[in-house]
Each structure stands twice: as C-alpha cells, then as structure tokens.
Design a protein that fits this description.
- By secondary structure, this protein is α+β, with helices and mostly antiparallel strands.
- Helices cover about 25% and strands about 25% of the residues.
C-alpha cells in the first residue's frame, strides 16, 4: 500500500511539472519574455536596448515634455521655451495638436537612461510623426545636447 501511494504522489508531481512547463512555453506570435516586443508593421522601429514601449499621450506638460500612459517623457535633445518665455504657449500648443490623445511609440535614449528629473529621455513618435524632429523642424524648439544621444546620427536629426 505504501508503494502505491509513493507511485501516485510521484506521478502527480511529474504531471504538475509537465503542465507547469507548458504554461511558460513560448508560443508562436507572442513576444519572448523580457526585451522589447516588435513594433506593429509599418510603425517606427525601436533602436538600441533601452526601454521602448507604446501607449497613449494623455497629457502635455510643455513644449518638450509629455506623459504617455502616465509616464513622464522628456523629448531627447530638444529644448523648447519654458513657462514665461516667449514661444512657450506656441510650442506647447504644437505638441498638444501633434500628440495629445494619439497612439505613441516611446524609444528611450540608450546613452541617457538615468533620465532628467524623473523623466525618461526619449524619441516619441505620435502616430507616425517624430515629435522631436517636428518640434524643431517647425521652429518651436531647438537641438541641444546632441553629442550625448544615440539618435544624433539619425537622418531626422540633421542640424543637431
């Protein structure tokens, strides 16, 4: 009787291990655990190995800072006028029009992962538009600290 109990317990343990292994087995079409999932087809691509994620722009702080799903993002190597400076409202309004409520891809700068005042330093694509490049290209901001960014050699950063 004791031998039968041991065989039953061992059989149940083996069965639990097999079921548990299949629960964590990667399935086709699902991204592997850890790392960045591939972006949707036709969307901007993530670069490097720092954080890269998608979400909705739910708040614009000023001309170079916004929130994506509640995470504060500072547009990397772009500077826009601060509150009280000439051009502040125009820069903020431009970013609101371009990004607020839109789907965004956030690609953190690998060379600046420590952030700035608790913000992630990143390139932000609002829809298919590069908010960093558009802000400067439309004259609402200017390039700054280009030499410390992984994105400095990107075609859209000409003039940086």
């Amino acid at each position: 009787m004791r031998r039968k109990t041991i065989v039953t317990v061992v059989s149940l343990l083996v069965l639990l291990m097999v079921v548990g292994a299949f629960a964590f087995w990667p399935r086709p079409g699902n991204p592997p655990a850890g790392g960045n999932p591939p972006p949707p087809s036709g969307s901007p691509q993530c670069r490097g190995s720092a954080r890269c994620f998608e979400g909705t722009v739910n708040y614009v702080v000023d001309g170079d800072t916004l929130d994506v799903d509640g995470t504060r993002i500072r547009l990397v190597f772009v500077n826009a006028p601060e509150r009280g400076q000439p051009g502040y409202s125009e820069a903020k309004d431009f970013l609101v029009t371009l990004c607020l409520g839109s789907h965004a891809l956030v690609d953190e700068d690998d060379h600046q992962t420590q952030g700035s005042y608790g913000r992630i330093l990143a390139v932000v694509y609002c829809g298919a538009r590069n908010a960093n490049a558009d802000l400067v290209g439309q004259g609402y901001g200017y390039w700054q600290y280009c030499y410390v960014s992984e994105f400095a050699d990107e075609p859209w950063a000409i003039g940086c």
